[in-house]
Amino acid sequence: MKTIYIILISILFVSCGAKNIHKMSGDKRIETGIESRKYQDNDNEYYAIVLGEHGDEGEARRLSVVNASIEFATKAEAMVNSAVKQDASQSINNKVGQLDIEAKRTIITKAATNNMTLVEDALYYNEDQRIYKYRAVYKLDIEKIVKTLGGN
């Protein structure tokens, strides 16, 4: 009997427009210009989706690069582990495998700054605030990390 009530309530809920709950509550969808679902980290490549805001366009772009380096630094442990897995000679494990997390972050930040690739970007300008907003997606290939760290 409980199951029948649950099914009836579910049907009633769905048929009453529950699909438009955001519309009913007055929420407005914001388009960011970048589809984050396309940029999921895996063992071969890592992504950073960042925003740089500043009154100067060049400074906004520079801030996005800085923010990407910081984002990659937070993923240092996973990135080093991926690099160690891909290094057949295990030279990376010998070099950085035993380092503490801060040392690994420093290495990844240096590698990210030199090797990250811009994948997608969008520039916005707010005239009221006179601020440029630069949204960007950067990618870092583990293969480049392996080469930077001296693996084969």
The secondary-structure element order is HHEHHHHEEH
As laid out across the biggest beta sheet, the strand order is 1-3-2
Query: DSSP strand (E) fraction?
Result: 15-25%
Please tally the β strands and state the result.
3
In DSSP terms (H or I, runs of 4 or more residues), the helix count works out at: 7
SS-derived structural category: alpha+beta
Distance between the termini: 66 Å
Q: Rounded to an integer, what's the Rg over CA atoms?
A: 22 Å
> For the report, how would you describe the main beta sheet?
3 strands, antiparallel
* Helical content band: 40-55%
Query: Residue ranges: pLDDT <50 for 5 or more in a row?
Result: none
Global shape: flat
* Rounded mean pLDDT score: 78
Number of domains: 1
Summarize the structure.
This protein has seven helices and three strands; from the N terminus they run ααβααααββα.
How does this structure look, described?
There is one protein chain. The chain is an alpha+beta fold. The chain has one domain. Helices cover about 50% and strands about 20% of the residues. The chain contains 7 helices and 3 strands. It has a 3-stranded antiparallel sheet with strand order 1-3-2. A hairpin with a 4-residue loop joins strand 2 and strand 3. The longest helix is centred in the middle third of the chain and has 18 residues, at about 55-75. It is flat and about 60 Å long.
